[in-house]
């Protein structure tokens, strides 16, 4: 899948809450009421990522999870990254 232009990425993210484009990644920080709610979210996201063969980089903290998508093969953001970001939003 081809890399998206910066303009195309910004246009997609404009309608998506909390996602930022920086460097060659898109990222969102998500807060949860409990630590275990964040872990449950990660488990659901892991199933979707595996099914789509497009896996995020995750950071886990106390009641917060950071989700980052990029295509390591392509070296930037692709349409599949945007699709997975939308899947994250659907989970929330």
Overall description:
The protein is α+β, with helices and mostly antiparallel strands and 92 residues long. It has one domain (18-91): Transcriptional coactivator/pterin dehydratase (Gyrase A, domain 2). It is built from three helices and four strands; from the N terminus they run αββαββα. The protein has helices spanning 6-13, 35-52, 79-91; strands at 20-22, 25-31, 57-61, 64-69. The longest helix has 18 residues, at 35-52. The chain starts with 5 loop residues before the first helix and ends with a helix.
CATH H-level superfamily title: Transcriptional coactivator/pterin dehydratase
* CATH C-level category: Alpha Beta
Number of domains: 1
- In what order do the strands lie side by side in the largest sheet? 1-2-4-3
Outline, from the CA principal axes?
A: globular
In whole angstroms, the N-to-C terminal distance is 26 Å
Q: What is the chain-wise order of helices and strands?
A: HEEHEEH
Average pLDDT value? 97
What's this entry about, in short?
Helices cover 42% and strands 23% of the residues.
Keywords:
alpha+beta, Gyrase A, domain 2, single chain
Per-chain topology:
Blueprint (H helix, E strand, L loop, with lengths): L5 H8 L6 E3 L2 E7 L3 H18 L4 E5 L2 E6 L9 H13 L1
Antiparallel strand pairs: 1-2, 2-4, 3-4
